[in-house]
Amino acid sequence: MVKNKNQLSKPVIEIKKMHKWFENFHVLKNISLGVNQGDRIVICGPSGSGKSTLIRCINRLEVHQKGDIIVNGTELTGDLKNLEAIRSDVGMVFQSFNLFPHLTVLENCTLAPIWVKGLPKKEANELAMELLTRVKIPEQALKFPGQLSGGQQQRVAIARSLCMQPKIMLFDEPTSALDPEMIKEVLDTMIELAETGMTMLVVTHEMGFAKKVADSVIFMDEGEIIEQNDPKNFFNNPKNERTKLFLSQILNH
Amino acid sequence: MSSEIYKPGSYPNLPPPPGTVGVYGWIKNNLFSSISNSTLTIISVVLIYYLIDGIIGWFFFDAVFDANSKIECRKINDGACWAVITRRVGQFVYGFYPEVERWRIDISFLTMFIAFAPLLYPDLPKRKWLLWFSGIYPFFAFILINGGYFGLTKIEYSLFGGFMLTVIIGVTGIVCSLPIGIFLALGRQSKLTVVRTLSVCFIEFMRGVPLITLLFVASSMLNYFMPPGTNFSILVRVIIMFTFFSAAYIAEVIRGGIQAIPKGQYEAADALGMNYWQTTRFITLPQALKISIPGIMNTFIGLYKDTTLVVVIGLLDPLGIGRAALADTKWNGLSTETYLFVALFFFVSCFAMSRYSLWLENKLNTDHK
Asked: How does residue A216 score in pLDDT terms, banded at 50, 70 and 90?
């Protein structure tokens, strides 16, 4: 695997003392996190711990109320121009795929490159076919999402994000809505993506994936980052009691 | 066959038992599934036969298609007296539009189908060229029907009537109310308070007032609200009222469609960096309109039939023409024939719209193709 984080010390994502509330509920508490180019970070934690909210803050699907988030040197504020620029640099894959059901697979992939980036249609099609080949479903290009299996849909969603040629990819529980036999095909796609040196933040319960791919694993609980470590130490030698409890719950069954 | 023993994993796909599928299976399951069902089927067939026999006799075999008056009709045969229609069909179709100029209406009507074809059928060959025609058609039809340009005689609106009037009000209202309805629906969902408030007020006012009131306003009061010097003809004012009225309904139908779109669709569009108008154009509206097709078509059909209300402000729609015919001493008392004919016209138009919307729904269904 390409380890290039030492070559570029400038972080691509910098979160400083960030807080977020849903109404009165304090979901994210004093989050600080730096992500370097090429980092592959897995975030885990019990449900309701704020891990999804955290990565949704990074492309401002959720708005934080306090602290700073700086992506690619640009601070996330209410400014729409900045926001659209950041969003076209940050790809996101959702738990429920969120493909556009009225468009074909190919149109799903080319819509944003054509209209947001202004890519000519022909180039956008070529790029989309290249990426659909990379996720191993070029033959489905002219079908509609509703005709594909869950695993295929999620791979299309990954290809759709990659078509914007993002610098960072966010994954929000990408395999949680899938049948067991389809989880592997999606994880394999993500592992291949990691091998290309993509900066990735992944919220997942797939600890096998974390062990294999992550540079760093983050455990969150009740809106706080409890522990962050490299996978080897995180799994073999967790320091915090809550981490130990969580790991024992998800690993021993 | 069924008692045969197969090794696990080698059981073949067998055909269903005979008599459970196909035409024979359908008849057996739906019409003759039990003794009571079979009895009902037979009784119904007999009843339908007698009913249709009588109706068809009255409509066709015993009917009189040409005569000079109702009394003459009755002397010839005792079925329907369609002479009231055949003798006045010109008025039913064109109102009092001058006879020598009726070709202008015919051409406008026929070319209307060419103008609509590329809008209604997206897969049409040479669609791009036809769309140009759709774009200029409103001006083309206006000049042709109204006259006053290129040596065409100007025809007064007061001479318009019959089915032609229905089609002019109905089609113009339908075509104009859809885009207005879309913008009202978007406005109602807008984050901008002023836009949202204006949309809500407009929609609630239009929905809260009976159409007939709006028509009276159009016929008597609307000019007070206009800047001095403007003087729309009554027909234009009526069309504006119909458009606004149905736009308000359409806005609510489309709002329902917009609200049925899962939040994830917007998040995906946001995450791809699409802005509001891009999301609206490519994600929100295509899906919302598809969901709203039955409701939109419902509103359109309602508007089309409501055009008969213009009779109360003195415009001669088919019902007005029919009443005029019935007032004629020659045809006095033939209201069944007259109103059936008008009903048939409306039924044909509305049924066509209804079938088109079903076809469109099927075509846009991308779930399990």
From this structure: very high
User: Would residue B69 count as lying in a domain?
Assistant: no
**C-alpha distances in angstroms, B355 versus A30, B111, B351, B361?**
60, 21, 6, 10
Shared-domain flag, residues B38 and B93: no
> Do both B35 and B91 map to the same domain?
no
Cβ distance of B274 and A96 shorter than 8 Å: no
The count of structural domains within chain B is: 2
pTM of the shown model: 0.84
- Tokens 């990426």 belong to which residue? A131
Chain B residues within an 8 Å CB radius of A103: 282
Q: A87 vs B272: CB contact, 8 Å cut-off?
A: yes
- Inter-axis angle of helices B162-188 and B335-364, to 10 degrees? 40
Give chain A positions within 8 Å (CB) of B284. none
Compute φ and ψ for B93, nearest 5 degrees: -85, -45
Range of the domain at B20: 16-61
Residue of A nearest to B277 (CA): A115
In-domain check, residue B123: no
ipTM score? 0.89
**Which residues are paired to A192 by β-bridges?**
none
Claim to verify: residue B91 and residue B27 sit in the same structural domain = no
Three-state DSSP string of chain B: CCCCCCCCCCCCCCCCCCCCCHHHHHHHHHCCCCHHHHHHHHHHHHHHHHHHHHHHHHHHHCCECCCCCHHHHHHHCCCCECHHHHCCHHHHHHCCCCHHHHHHHHHHHHHHHHHHHHHHCCCCCCHHHHHHHHHHHHHHHHHHHHCCCCCCCCCCHHHCEHHHHHHHHHHHHHHHHHHHHHHHHHHHCCCCHHHHHHHHHHHHHHHHCCHHHHHHHHHHHHHHHCCCCCCCCHHHHHHHHHHHHHHHHHHHHHHHHHHCCCHHHHHHHHHCCCCHHHHHHHHHHHHHHHHHHHHHHHHHHHHHHHHHHHHHHCCECHHHHHHHHHHCCCCCCCHHHHHHHHHHHHHHHHHHHHHHHHHHHHHHCCCCC
The answer to whether residue A71 neighbours chain B at the CB level (below 8 Å) is no
**Domain assignment present for B23:** yes
Partner residue opposite A61 with nearest CB, options B271, B366, B368: B271
Mean per-residue pLDDT of chain B: 87
User: Which of A100, A163, A95 has its CA nearest to residue A126?
Assistant: A163
Look at the block and give the residue holding tokens 């940050």.
A90
Q: Is A160 close to B271, i.e. CB distance below 8 A?
A: no
**Cβ-defined contact of A101 to B273 (cutoff 8 Å):** no
For A87, the closest of B270, B282, B286 (CB atoms) is B270
- Which pLDDT tens digit goes with each residue over B66-82? 888 878 888 888 888 88
Query: Which pLDDT tens digit goes with each residue over B166-222?
Result: 999 999 999 999 999 999 999 999 889 999 999 999 999 999 999 998 888 887 776
pLDDT digits (tens, 9 = 90+) for B304-338: 999 988 888 888 888 888 888 888 888 888 888 88
